[in-house]
Amino acid sequence: NSCECQSPEDIVFVSAVCTALAKGREGGFKNYLADEVLLSVSKAVLDRTGIDPFLIQDITVGNVTGKGGLAIPSRMAVPGAGFPETTSASTFDEINNLINDVDVYEINKAFASQALYTERVLSIHREKVNLNGGAIEISHLLGCTGASQVATLCSLLNRQVKKVSVTSMCIGSSMGMAAAWEKE
């Protein structure tokens, strides 16, 4: 989606902060809640950019299709990072596209039957799913499926001049997560 500024003084600021990765159960973020990680990332963005937090009117965290995906953690992290209480923390909850408008799907298939089931239930065209093979074919690194999917999708979107993609994966205990990605 394009951003339409309300006035010439409006600024859209995008920042990414890389975080350290760790092996298995050795450190990393396994003992942190999402709002704690977002708090550190938000503080790092403020520190690196030098932006006055009182000039920020809205913060968007993620692009998650599941209802309330990051809404609560982002609402908890924003004030803790130093943004004023009046700064809203938005989260996108809907893909806003029909299934057929999605160009590429990366469906985690730790179990091949799950990817096939998802294709059938959602009536997704097979030629849009796991174009480079699924998670097992690429490698099914414990805790790295999302990173693998996102890297795969970014590459596919650029090489094939595609715009909208969706990742989905199992996260254990009969739960799952999906995220929509749109190339600007």
Give a quick summary of the entry:
One of its GO terms (molecular function) is acetyl-CoA C-acyltransferase activity. By secondary structure, the protein is of the alpha/beta class.
Task: Describe this protein's structure.
There is one protein chain. The chain is an alpha/beta fold. 30% of the residues lie in helices and 15% in strands. It contains five helices and five strands. The strands form two sheets. Strands 3-4-5 form a three-stranded mixed sheet, covered by helices on one side. Strand 4 (164-172) and strand 5 form a beta hairpin. The termini are close together. Mean pLDDT is 65; it is low at 62-71 and 88-97. It holds the Pfam family Thiolase_C. One of its GO terms (molecular function) is acetyl-CoA C-acyltransferase activity.
> Could you give a short account of the major beta sheet?
3 strands, mixed
Number of strands: 5
- Average residue-wise pLDDT: 65
Q: Do you know the CATH topology of the largest domain?
A: Peroxisomal Thiolase, Chain A, domain 1
**C-alpha end-to-end distance:** 7 Å
- Count of individual domains: 2
Looking across the biggest beta sheet, what order are the strands in?
Answer: 3-4-5
CATH class of the largest domain: Alpha Beta
Order of helices and strands: HEHEEHHHEE
What is the 3D shape?
A: elongated
Supply the CATH superfamily name of the largest domain: Thiolase/Chalcone synthase
Number of helices: 5
Task: Return the CATH architecture of the largest domain.
Answer: 3-Layer(aba) Sandwich
How much β-strand is present in the residues? 5-15%
What class do helices, strands and sheet pairing give? alpha/beta
